[in-house]
Automatic annotation (TrEMBL):
SUPFAM superfamilies: S-adenosyl-L-methionine-dependent methyltransferases
Methyltransferase domain: residues covered: 44-139
Protein name: Methyltransferase domain-containing protein
InterPro entries documented for this protein: Methyltransf_25 (IPR041698), SAM-dependent_MTases_sf (IPR029063)
CDD domains given in the database record: AdoMet_MTases (cd02440)
Annotated source species: Viridibacillus arvi
Secretion signal, residue range per the UniProt entry: none
Length: 256
């Protein structure tokens, strides 16, 4: 897996500032991460950290953080956000399948369904190999991925979503989603209209590919890479996982 291959699937993050405005408020995943970090005085690694949505609040809690992402713009925005505070964060641009960090950590995590960017079996295995090299003995890896609900994936889906930014701009997003059963990849296209004071000011179109992984695949992936499952939740609220769960929130641990 190379930088170029990942870069072909990053249209969704072209405008880091706008992306941050849309998603920075989301904090449901923070509670579990904090619980697993506890009072660790050792550095913690966040993969696919984006604009620092979790890296920055974790550092505010006193944790030494390494924020890793492949996207230059997202990392630069995260750095700008953290510059006004004296936070212990090392932001680094790296491919998560080829991590080369100067530390080993008791906790590595990756949220925001970033796991779905690893589109092939090989890239998933490479991710776990890379994580394994940077985890301490019995260290934890926490990540989430959308649950493949077949009745939803079976049909072409068109939806419209309306969001408000800073009580000033309205964003209408039109989503088209088509699932390929052979590759287990969902092809998503979004057309966004940004309206301010009743006037259409921007129209954007982007696409993204998202790999879906089934529970038994996940079990194989963990075992074959030397991990054991600690918990599998259906959401970041620790709901019990079942066939209708929106997410698979995975807490796994490195075996000796």
């Amino acid at each position: 897996m190379t930088l170029d291959i990942f870069e072909k699937n990053l249209e969704k993050y072209t405008d880091p500032v706008k992306y941050d405005e849309l998603y920075n408020h989301y904090q449901e995943d923070l509670a579990i991460i904090l619980e697993c970090a506890q009072d660790s005085n050792q550095p913690i690694i966040e993969l696919a950290c984006g604009t620092g949505r979790l890296t920055i609040p974790m550092a505010r809690k006193g944790f030494r953080m390494y924020g890793i992402d492949i996207h230059t713009g997202m990392l630069n925005h995260a750095k700008r956000k953290s510059e006004t505070e004296n936070l212990n964060i090392q932001f680094m641009q790296q491919d998560c399948t080829k991590l080369n960090l100067p530390i080993n950590s008791p906790l590595i995590y990756m949220t925001g369904n970033s796991f779905q960017h690893f589109l092939t079996n090989e890239s998933q295995d490479d991710l776990f190999t890379s994580v394994k090299k940077h985890l301490q003995s019995k260290g934890s890896f926490i990540f989430d991925t959308r649950n493949p609900i077949l009745k939803e994936l079976a049909n072409v889906e068109e939806t419209v979503e309306r969001k408000t930014i800073n009580n000033k701009q309205i964003v209408n997003e039109k989503h088209l989603e088509v699932y390929d059963h052979n590759t287990q990849i969902l092809h998503c296209t979004t057309t966004s209209e940004i309206i301010e004071n009743g006037t259409l000011i921007i129209t954007n179109k982007d696409s993204i590919l998202l790999r879906y992984t089934f529970p038994l695949e996940l079990e194989r992936l963990l075992k074959s890479n030397g991990f054991e499952l600690v918990e599998l939740y259906g959401s970041w609220k620790k709901t019990r996982f079942n066939k209708d769960s929106v997410s698979m929130v995975v807490h796994c641990r490195l075996k000796d």
